[in-house]
Structures are given as C-alpha cells and as structure tokens.
Amino acid sequence: MRIIKYLFLLLLLSLVTLSIFIATQKGAFTAERSKIINSQRASAYSYTNDLKNWKDWNSLAANDAMINITYSNNTIGKGGFCSWSGKEGAGELKTINAFENDSIQQTMTYDGNTADIVLSFKDTLGKTKVTWKAKGRMSFTSKVLHIFKGGGANLFGTIFENSLANLDKRLDYEINTYDVKVNGVVRKLQAFYLSQTFTSEFLKINKNTSIVFSKINSFCKDNDITIYGKPFVIYHTYDTANKLAKISICIPIKEPIFTTEGSEILSDTLQAFDAVKTTLKGDYSHTSKALEKTAEYLKANNLRTDPKFSRIEVYTIGKTQSNNPSKWVTEIYYPTRPKPIYRPAAVTPATTEETDTKPVEEKEIPSEF
C-alpha cells in the first residue's frame, strides 16, 4: 500500500510540475508560409478577398464535409466576417482591411487561440507569390495539446501550408478555365436603367462595380423599383494607354423613373442598337481574350464600330449567382454601324420619265432580349 501511495504522489507531483511548466511557457507565436500560385495577382487577391470562397480552399473547411459556416451580408473586403464549427473545432474570421491586389489584414480565433493575420500578394514572373503570416497567442488547452508539436507556429503553419496548396489547385482550375465565343451580329433592344457614371482605373473596375451594383440594388429595394434584367456596365471610353475607363454601372428597370436633382444614381434609356456579341464563360481576367477575338471578327467581316460608346458588358452569371469563376458568364456587345450599301451608278434615261428602283434587301438581324 505504501508503494502505491508513493507512486500516486509521484504521479500527482509530475502532473503538477507539467502543468506549471506548460502554464509558464510563452503562448505567443509567429507563423509564416509562402507559395507561388499559378495565377495572376489580381485574380488571386480577388478570390481570397471574398470569404464565401474560404470554404473551398482553407484546410479547416475544405477537408470537413460537415462544417457549418455562417457569413455576414458583405463577405468582400473590409468588414467581411464568417464563423464556423466542424470536426476540427470552431472559430471566427474577420477582414479588418484590404488593399487592392496587395494585402488582406484579418483577425482569427480558433479553439481559443487568437491571431492577427496578413495575406500578401506579389507578382512573380506572371505568377503570384502568396505569403500568409500570423502573430497570435495560444490558449492553455492548445498549449497542452501542442507542447510537443511545435506550438502555435506549427499549428497555424500547417493550416497555412495545406490551405495554400489547396488555393493553388483551386485557382488553377477556377481562374484558368474559360471559353470565348463570338456569337455574331445581334440587335440589342431598348432598355431603361439606373446608373452611376465615373472614371475608373482598370484595376479598380471590378471592385467599383460590386460596390455600385449593391448601392443601386438597395436604392431599388428602398423605392419599390422593379429590376428588369441582368446588371451591366457601359464603357463610354477605354483608354489602354493610361489604363482608365469612363464607365456607367447600370441596373435595368422595368419602367423609366425620375431621380432627384443632384442624385448620384441617375435614370436613363439605352436605345436599341446593332452589335457584335461575344460570350465569355469564366473569370473576368480573360476579358482581354474576348476583346481580341471580337476585334478579329470585326476585321474579318469588314464591320465598323459605332463611336457612341466602346462596349457593354452584361453579367449574366456573376459572383452573386456562383462562387466558382469558371461558371461566370459575361456577354459583351460592341456597337456597330451599318455596312455601306453600294448601288450601281444611275443611267440617264432616254426620256424624261422617272423610273422605279428596287431597294436592296438587308438580312434580318436576330434580337437580344
């Protein structure tokens, strides 16, 4: 009995000593991992900046089919928030700030551990170096579980490493899978719309469209205005030298309305016009490929563009309908002018009587609704 008593006391003393040792260990940690992603920086930034995509590449969610995730109304950029619970634990993630195509600052809690996180993006020979860094503090329970496994640096480092591998695979498919089809000449019918017009840098167009679409949608909801079709952007000018575009970000409505003087949101009418239609299926980063194919079609068919505006992009399927960029559908319309009609030179009649001339028939153009 005495031996058992001594053994029990020894075990108890060992547990107390181990607890004191663990409690006195520093809970602070730093973790950092980097990976070259086979996608352009703008695409990598845009994809990771939307927390709705988080479940498709972050290892905490991607490997847990039963995970339950709750999102805030806005999941893009500053203020975006999500919380989750799953087989690997529970946590919260919030975006504190986001700098266009440069970095994303977030805070994260995970099973009692807290961390400040920075995702940074750097161009690397046409690809992107993504660096994920965290500074945080571990809970006592996590220190116990990971005391002999490298602590918080290894815990978060492993999450980062696996997640970046998932991100590379996901982006390689989602961003780089696309298709461009030139549909030909169509008739775009008249449409009423609400819009906001301004000049934007190329790199900020996607961000600006998301913000303004949301603003106009809220305006329609607050004023009981019926939305009548897919959102679109009118490119009035497209300056490739200075990378600037004058654009109108538009939401189609069923009936024309009057807006108050000085309002940022204006009401206007898009008159019917003939256009070459091109359909892009895939991420917006491939728009340049669609524009190139359209230019080739215009040249091959001796079609002239109408200078009243550059083009219109209609977002048939976009971010609000699908988190997968490979499934997005954008319809692009280049306004065209009618081909000149050549008639043979008039022959002077032998008499002074007028003669009838039969008009040249033109092919009917299908209409776009």
- Sequence stretches where pLDDT stays below 50 over 5 or more residues: 16-24, 350-369
Strand content: 35-45%
SSE string: HEHHHEEEEEEHHEEHEEEEHEEEE
Number of strands: 17
Give the biggest sheet.
Answer: 10 strands, mixed
End-to-end span in angstroms?
Answer: 92 Å
Structure class: alpha+beta
Quick take:
This protein is 28% helix and 37% strand.
What do these coordinates show?
With 369 residues, the protein is α+β, with helices and mostly antiparallel strands. Helices cover 28% and strands 37% of the residues. The chain contains 8 helices and 17 strands. Strands 8, 9, 10, 11, 12, 13, 14, 15, 16 and 17 form a 10-stranded mixed sheet that branches. Strands 1-7-6-5-4-3-2 form a 7-stranded antiparallel sheet, covered by helices on one side. A hairpin with a 4-residue loop joins β10 (232-239) and β11. The longest helix has 24 residues, at 151-174. It starts with a helix and ends with a strand.
List the helices and strands and how they pair.
Layout: H1 2-24, E1 28-37, H2 41-48, H3 54-57, H4 59-62, E2 68-71, E3 81-86, E4 89-99, E5 103-110, E6 113-124, E7 127-137, H5 140-146, H6 151-174, E8 179-188, E9 191-201, H7 205-222, E10 232-239, E11 244-253, E12 266-270, E13 273-281, H8 287-300, E14 304-305, E15 311-317, E16 329-337, E17 367-368
Parallel strand pairs: 8-17
Antiparallel strand pairs: 1-7, 2-3, 3-4, 4-5, 5-6, 6-7, 8-13, 9-11, 9-12, 10-11, 10-15, 13-16, 14-16, 15-16
